[in-house]
Amino acid sequence: MANTGDSEQPRENRLQPIDRSAELLPFHRAQQLTRCSLYWLPASAFPLPEHELTWTQTFLDHFAALLESQFGRGCEVFLQFKAAQEEPLLTPFLRSSRSFIPITGLSRRPGKPVPPPPSKQDIDDVREGRKAFSMDNYVADFSHWFLGRAAGEQRHQMFGYGAMTLLFLPEGPKPPQIPMFRPLRENPLVKPDELNRYLMMGQVLQNGFPVKSKQLFGADLADDVKYRDLPFVIPLLSSQNFFAQPEEEVDKWFQLCDVYVNESPADHGIILATRLDLEEDIIRIVAEMKKAGLTFGAR
Q1: How far apart are CA 178 and CA 162, in angstroms?
Q2: DSSP, residue by residue, the chain
Q3: Using CA atoms, how far apart are residues 74 and 77, in angstroms rounded to an integer?
Q4: How far, in Å, are 2, 3, 5 from residue 8 at the CA level?
């Protein structure tokens, strides 16, 4: 008599990858991309509606804390220059500049050259109405890098407008704290926290990121007087770039940072790219937020 037990039934191939797409929601992973892990978080609009903004900021707070504690990666915050020249970003940018201390560098879109300055003909055409003025035609994609060591505050004040890039980099050694001798303690002009914050700012400028960024993304501008003295150059990426650019270009992005997050109006959302194995961590954070009552969808 034939054995009809379960042991004789065909078994599912256990080597097949488990589909985690439902657990990742509201993130969507580009499954066909193998050169890195690329996730997309949809945005119904920029600026983000309040419920989407609250969810995303909370996720980034948990995500940044995980990367710092488990991987030793710190968050560096960049804001697009052109967006910061107009409302609704102009007011919070100006209001926070004293404490966030922005310095200006360059963001570069892959395959797109920096625009040349307007010619006399361009100026005449705009002045006489033959041509509409567009800042994109003549002004490069400059960006502000916040030296003030307050990434969480910076995200909470200016994330959600479609203009922020976050790079998660290996953290350098912490600078020594200034010993508060009595003359310093009793001096009303001395603020220990501020002194130590300036020490940390000096440390991050010396951690190799600015020089490395220019070597990777600004080598062709080394002799250009308009750009050669800028302190840093970072990539400005959309999801399409991860598919369209050659492997050596993608390798350069991950030589600069381990995790790349960008508000991408071209993608109608936020992209998160990494070569670290973070999928389980993302799923866990999303599940914990859901358990706490935080949902991404419209209320």
Answers
A1: 38
A2: ----SGGGS----TTSPP--HHHHTT-EE-TT--SSEEEEEE-SSSSPPHHHHHHHHHHHHHHHHHHHHHH-EEEEEEEEHHHHTSTTTHHHHHHHHHHH-EEEEEEE-TT-PPPPPPPHHHHHHHHTTSS---HHHHS--EEEEE-SS-HHHHHHHHTTSS-EEEEEEE--PPPPPPP--HHHHT-TT--HHHHHHHHHHHHHHTSSHHHHHHHHH-GGGTT-TTTTT-S-EEE---HHHHHHS-HHHHHHHHHH-SEEEEEEGGGTEEEEEESS--HHHHHHHHHHHHHTT---S--
A3: 10
A4: 10, 7, 6
Q: Maximum Cα–Cα distance for the chain, whole Å?
A: 96
1-10, 133-142, 209-218, 285-294: least confident range: 1-10
The two beta strands, 233-235 and 102-108, are parallel
Q: Which residues contact 145 (CB under 8 A, 6 or more apart)?
A: 76, 77, 78, 102, 103, 104, 105, 231, 232
Integer Cα distance of 89 and 161 in angstroms = 7
Could you read off the pLDDT of 15-30 as tens digits, one per residue?
556 788 999 999 999 9
- Quickly count: other Cβ atoms within 10 Å of residue 160's Cβ: 24
Q: Structure pTM?
A: 0.84
Length of the chain: 299
d(CA 299, CA 56): 15
Q: How far apart are the first and last CA of the chain?
A: 60
More confident residue, 179 or 124: 124
